[in-house]
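Render this sequence as a predicted structure.
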Amino acid sequence: MKGLDLSKKYYFECIKPIIQDKLPEIAGEYAATLIGYGSDVIGNDDEISRDHEWGPRCHIFLSEQMHEKYDLILDKILDENLPLKFEGFPTRFTFTEHWGSIPSKDGTGYHHVVITTPQRFLELTIGVPGVPESDIDLLAVSEQRLLEFTSGKVFEDFTGELTALREKLAYFPDDVWRYRIAYSLSDIGCDDSLISLCGQRGDIISMHLNAARTVEKIMRLVFLLNRTYAPLYPKWLHRNFMKLPEIASDIEKPLLIVLEEKEYQPKMEALKLIYEKILTFMEDHNLCKKHPAVFQRDNSGIDYDIQTSSKDVLSTIGGDLKSRLIDGISLGAIDQWMFNQDIIVNAEHMKSLLPVYKAEPLKRNRLDKHI
């Protein structure tokens, strides 16, 4: 059984009847969901997933006023009335420092029904209690957290408040989307040419490392082009990638060639096919043009000038983001250039990096003979 289906059944057969019987004051005044972290939320759970953070669980979202009055009362009622097992799975969990919540084998521990409010949930996960006020503020919100908030299932939403917020955060505003795409294109161009240069020099590990980095960046770009949040964790990247309706199935085999081929020439030929698919799609959707590349050093590079295509996308952006550049290049969102996963999922750490976008002037500092 998939975790979402298990938790939905758990809510309707156990949690909801308890609320109706023991605390009718809040009946019809909450939302019941399973959203947030976890492979079950994005539908990728299997038997391997069941060792931690998996089992009968739920989120109950109350209004701020109702939460202040009924949070502890509801928690106690659920603790006293929920069964110790549901569908053969433990409903009590214990906390471990390394693995988080793990199913309790002896029935001790806590129930996994989180009682919160939409504002508290968003404050904790994205850093603000609602929709971020500006495009720049959204650059400090990770795709992973937005994926968590908009994935999963809403079992019931009597007030509609949570559903409305999920709809507003369903995807990035247009300028933020284009700004991320522009960065993604320019960032890919930093690694792809190194594949052939390292291969020619016999630096095989570096060649494969740059190939792998390029493949991941391409996959994340394709998520953007599909207007779909990408998972942070690489273990789910390919599985979610193959769910995308555009481009992904056409380039899966060439991506494997880039990863698996031992020589650089087949890797570069596969990249040409990939870029042809991606840039054709972008040109068809009026995002950029396919600009021919000017090859340097050898003729094993990519046929297109990705950096110029990136500038095409930037030219379509308005508002505050239009000036948030370094030497004419998008800075990208924080989770595009920050690689520490613990920082990316911590809202306060992400927000602390916002001054990056407020520095003036946004130019590289260079040393030359006059300095």
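Summary. The chain has a mean pLDDT of 92. The first strand starts at residue 30 and ends at 34.
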